[in-house]
Amino acid sequence: MALLGCRNISRSFGAVKALTNVSLSIEEGEVHGLVGENGAGKSTLIKIMSGTLLPTHGQLVWKDQDVILRSAAKAQQLGVETVFQELTLIPDWTVADNLVIARGIPAHGRRQSFARVYDEAKALLARFQLERIDPYQRVVDLPLPDRQMLEIVKAISGKPKLVILDEATSALLEPQVEWLFGHIRALKAQGVSVLFSSHRWSEIAGISDRISILRNGEYVDTVQSDSVDEAKVTALMTGKELNLVFPTKVDPVDDVRLSVRNLRSMRLHDISLEIRRGEVLGVGGLQGQGQLELFLSLFGALPYSGQITVDGRPVHIGRPLDAINAGIGIGLIPEDRKTEGLFLSRPILENISLPKLRRFSKDGFLQLRKERAEVQKAADLLAVKAPSVDVEVGHLSGGNQQKVMLSRWVLAGADLLLLYDVTRGVDVGTKQEIYQLIAKRAQAGAAILFYSSDTSEVVNMAHRVAVMFDYRIRSIVEGDAITMENIVGLSIGSQAEVRYETSG
Amino acid sequence: MVQWWNRMARVDQNIAMSYVMVVVLIFVGALISVGFASPSHLATLLTISSFLGIVAAGQTLVILTGGIDLSVPYLLNASAVFFTGFAARLILGHDALDFLVVLAISVGFGVVNGVGVTVFNIPPLIMTLGMNSVIEGIVLVVTQGTPQGSVPAIASAIVNNTVVGIPIILVVWAGLAVLIALILTRTSLGRYIYAAGTSVKASYLTGVPIRTAFIAVYAASGLFAGLAGIFLTGFSGNSYLGMGNAYLLPSIAAVIIGGASLLGGQGKYWGTIAGAITLTVLITILQVLNISQALQDIFYGVVIFLALLFYGRQANARG
Amino acid sequence: MKHLANRREVQWNLPALISGAVLVVLVVVNASVQPGYFSSFNLTSVLTGALPLILIAAGQFFVILTGGIDLSVGAVATVANVVAAVMMKSGVASTVSITVLVVAIGLACGLLNGLGVVLGRIQPLLVTLATMSIFEGVALLVLPTPGGVVPTGFSTVLTGTTAAVVILIGLVAGWVWFQRTPLALQLMAVGSDEAAAQMNGMNVPFVKVAAYVLSGGFASLCGLYLAAQISSGDPTIGLPYTLLSIAAVVIGGARLAGGKGTLWGVVAGGFILSMLNSLIFFLGVSSYYKDLVQGLILLVAVAITTYRGVRLKYFTL
């Protein structure tokens, strides 16, 4: 019997459709794998099933009865426990308190004897072979993998009927994944269902009974895991792409604009790459493999060690101001344009001219007319659609906002552009425009580092693709080897033979 | 008319509304008391408003960056006390020089606020609250509890004399208003202030010199509170301990009534001017009605509360 | 008991322990410069001198624990002080009923703050700044100039050694009991990570309101104690306590951003500030240095906890 089913579930965020008409069901006592590329809608679906998000359309079905899950607490009452990507442990609480009393603690009520909580936590940790974790320790002092494991323990210990694991292994090391799998098998033996999503194919294949595939917010298929192989699932995940028209790639010039040797930052490990003028260097890989850290450290927003050379000149980029100025000429379009890139309540004009105000300053005052003329020129060059440059940026569509960001860096003369997921939340028409604009910038001599959560964009835009895995560059793919299959294969940690040319 | 109103930015709507409020209140005052709206009384009202308006200028700049300055009471008091004290002991022997030295000290206090907030990462609330106590302490130590001295002619002249029939202080205030408007709209610093108040993170990733902007606004708050302190000695004829206390809450209230967002990034000094005049007229009406100091305090709190609720809702509606 | 002796407990409460050590040093310094420091008379005055600050800081502590701030505590204490001075008559009945009334007023003031923060969605700083003005006005209405009188019995009992010791032990023991109640745990959870608290199904608005109510209650206790100390009322008496209460909490090792702290640390913080004052007085330093020193102590204490490397300030992953 189906334990939890989705019937025609859709969810949109404003104009963006995250899920369209998804129907699937999880049987009692099965381990159900959920796969899809970044942005395929996995997280949205999981949020709906765990009660933290309501669907715009469609119905959840629990044991053949329609249910509405208004809150995580409601879902927990039914027996749905979820391990989210954002951790729910209280940082300043002890491990014991987090495990035993965090969930459903009443605002008033009995005093929680420490000895009892401590003993219960100790027993619980022992049941999960985690005796090495001191129940008395504060969660904030624990390393991330331990916190992730505690989150899992907290969810499983609540006697659930369905456990949802949303990328629960992303912070775990190999033996810890084995630990988790042992407990998933134990749950299964007790008739508990598990919904398991992961970026790593080997994990999905190793633990799932059935696998459901999502693509572009739509349900593709559910397959028996022993009837498919990686190639088949990869094909289903990538599928027939939308008929996007990408610009033809023009060969770059030979001058190396940026060269990076042995860059380390946070968890980033030994990154070496170079970008030539006119080149789009794609960055592939699944989310969270170090792409963000790479972009931020190149822009001076994270401390790094290693050597960065710009136009053959070694430089140190201590802060974003350095990256923008001093002849380095780097511009970043960050992950979240609304909070990290733009000033939504300020007009387009101010947003574009901000990094290069000095150019318009004379005797301490801004030359507003000159500023306006040049901003207008940059905005026109990048086809920003707005009645005037005095419109607040917050009133523009996502695509136009990204064009404002691009205009900003064009005006600032930045010809080394770090583009982090520029087309996220942008409609299809504007996406194509942005592709053309990027290609035009490259042909005008700019060097571009291009990451996208949509792998097909990276494949079609980039002259070379650096695929990242586990905070390293796994390989750099060139020429005809840049195909969806190759990039996705390398991204999800395929052990398949690497047949193409690799650099270094 | 309606279309024209709808086309205005929200900030400008708020400012327009606060000026309407000023006119309405003066009308109410005229109904209650004969001569309330006479030119000479209006000039007096504006003169009294100017002290608050000048203090609130600094508060506006700080609030535009998303901060708050709770040290204005003793920034103001220190400059008033030092100004009269210097004049008495003739340390420098020259009014204009005293004037500049006192302002430099005020700016120095402001810079300390700015450094505490940006370099030591102390929340503005705590930094300025602590500085208020520190400056109070300095004033007490220097004066041994009793401010001395006399008010130099320059201060009384600015407050009491007129040019072409307009009190000099109003001319000064208008000049400051134009200066602030120029800084906010026509200089890089102005752009940086709005940017830092809108999003510190985005500012950092756009190469905005955040520290400079923050230190500048706290320094400006020191400068304006200092100026107000000097002018106030001219108005009251002496300096005394606690003379700045009455300006803390009104300086924040004037900014809120003037339509600025307390989260930063939204607002103009023109609005604060209307806010300062509104509050002054209101208080004058209360005084005309013989309302006690106690009720005035309560009244201030309620006005701020209501203004916050009103504008807070709007902010939420904007999402 | 085995848990209390845990090494991690020591590590975790390090800031509070440091303030404990500072306190011991202060006692030694005070004792060495003041003859007869350990006389019972002097010890009583040390205890009672610190109590108003400790009481009001205890209230501030609960608000700071949730990540908020309460600038109205001084004004609430003033209201409590003047109401007691005006209304309290001799006799057990009057004393008890007015004490209850005053505490109820304090709780109500706190409720107003809490509702403003939660329902009005206004920053705690501004809500409590506005209510500060309102409460100060109310205090002036009740008692325009210093005056009034509280019954001698009330004063004698409260300012005696026994009462002071009982109150202090009550605070520390109360905390030892309270810190394991669901409410205390949730106050910490909300200050530690509001979103995570929400995800665990905790009633965040209720917890916040509770913190402000507690703050108002303790502020009123401070006002009552001040009334007992000066035997009368003063409509400006609470003024300096707003800054001092924050300073005592921070010096007591609580985290200004919320989520972490102990009440016994705050008690130590209150003693440190009040003993510094008496030391300044005894060393013959002009009392005019008091505000200067208090402000500097607050700023230095906060700066030590908030200063981090410059680099990651605006951008953390």
Descriptive notes:
- The complex is a heterotrimer of chains A (504), B (319) and C (317).
- Chain A has 504 residues and is an alpha/beta fold.
- Chain A has 2 domains: 2-238, Rossmann fold (3-Layer(aba) Sandwich), CATH 3.40.50; 256-501, Rossmann fold, CATH 3.40.50.300.
- Chain A is built from 17 helices and 22 strands.
- In chain A, helix 8 packs across helix 17 (484-491).
- Chain A is globular.
- The N and C termini of chain A lie far apart (54 Å).
- Mean pLDDT of chain A is 85; it is low at 495-504.
- With 319 residues, chain B is mainly alpha-helical.
- Chain B has a domain at 49-244 and 259-270.
- Chain B has helices spanning 2-7, 10-32, 39-64, 72-89, 95-118, 124-143, 153-160, 168-186, 188-198, 200-204, 210-236, 248-257, 269-288, 293-318; strands spanning 162-163, 166-167.
- In chain B, helix 12 (248-257) crosses helix 13 (269-288).
- In chain B, 55% of the residues are buried.
- Mean pLDDT of chain B is 87; it is low at 313-319.
- Chain C has 14 helices and no strands.
- Chain C has 317 residues and is mainly alpha-helical.
- In chain C, helix 4 (73-87) runs antiparallel to helix 5 (92-118).
- Classes of the chains: A alpha/beta (504), B mainly alpha (319), C mainly alpha (317).
- At the B-C interface, helix 6, helix 10 and helix 14 of B face helix 6, helix 12 and helix 14 of C.
- Chain B: GO terms for molecular function: transmembrane transporter activity.
- Chain B: It is found in: Cell membrane.
- Chain B: Its main location: membrane.
- Chain B: It comes from Sulfobacillus acidophilus.
Concise summary:
Chain A has helices spanning 42-50, 72-78, 95-100, 114-127, 144-156, 174-189, 201-207, 230-238, 291-298, 320-324, 337-341, 348-353, 368-381, 398-411, 428-443, 455-461, 484-491, and strands at residues 2-13, 16-27, 31-35, 57-62, 65-67, 80-83, 162-166, 193-197, 210-215, 218-224, 256-265, 268-276, 280-284, 305-310, 313-315, 330-333, 361-362, 365-366, 416-420, 447-451, 464-469, 472-478.
Instruction: Output the strand order for the largest sheet of chain B.
Output: 1-2
Radius of gyration of chain B over all CA atoms, rounded: 19 Å
Radius of gyration of chain A: 25 Å
- Measure the end-to-end span of chain A: 54 Å
Overall pLDDT of chain A: 85
Oligomer: heterotrimer
CATH architecture of the largest domain in chain A: 3-Layer(aba) Sandwich
Count of runs of 4 or more consecutive helical residues of chain A: 17
Low-confidence stretches of chain A: 495-504
**How are helices and strands ordered from N to C of chain B?**
HHHHHHHEEHHHHHHH
Query: Which structural class best describes the helix and strand composition of chain A?
Result: alpha/beta
Give the count of helical stretches of chain B.
14
What percentage of amino acids of chain B are in beta strands? under 5%
Q: Strand share of the residues of chain A?
A: 25-35%
> Major beta sheet of chain A, specifics?
6 strands, mixed
* Low confidence ranges of chain B: 313-319
Task: Quote the distance from N terminus to C terminus of chain B.
Answer: 27 Å
Number-wise, the strands of chain A total 22
- What is the CATH first-level class name of the largest domain in chain A? Alpha Beta
Q: Provide the spatial order of strands within the biggest beta sheet of chain A.
A: 6-7-8-3-9-10
Number of strands of chain B: 2
GO molecular function, one term (chain A): ATP hydrolysis activity
Keywords (chain A): ATP-binding, Cell membrane, Membrane, Nucleotide-binding, Repeat, Sugar transport, Translocase, Transport
Protein name (chain A): Sugar ABC transporter ATP-binding protein
InterPro entries (chain A): AAA+_ATPase, ABC_carbohydrate_import_ATPase, ABC_transporter-like_ATP-bd, ABC_transporter-like_CS, P-loop_NTPase
